[in-house]
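pinging the channel bc i need a second pair of eyes. not urgent but kinda urgent?? the chain im working w is below, pasted from the shared doc
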Amino acid sequence: MELAMDEDRELEEKIAELREEFGALLNDEAIKKLALEELGKLVLNRKQISDLRDREGASLEVRVIKIYETREFNRKDGTTGYLRKILIEDDSGSCQLTLWDDDIEIPETLGITEGSRLALINFYIKISDFGVDANKGKIGRIEVLA
């Protein structure tokens, strides 16, 4: 019984944190789903790479093939941006994991190396002439799997 109360309290705290972060951008149902997902109690839209569609949210379990160096670029507004690509694969195919700006240091921070297994949770998928990109975005999360 104590464990359930602790889990409820943890969920309530996470909901309050997300409500403060996202304000009116997300409704109560979306905030609760996001809180459950961030606490590892709900994984939304788990897919294989071969099943990814343009402009959808997806969660993947992948293996890192190659981590590329960070690239610096100039944005249209004159500011400097940073981009880092990671080649990933699962049993169905491969694609690029794209990290932007503050997220480019995630491989070092989490100890990700070539061969690491990752869970990519709530990533945004973009398909272009250059192939499939899984973008972390603001609500995406990366977990290193054992």
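so The two ends are 30 Å apart (CA to CA). and Residues 49-145 form a domain with the OB fold (Dihydrolipoamide Acetyltransferase, E2P) fold (CATH 2.40.50.140). — does that match what u expected or am i reading it wrong
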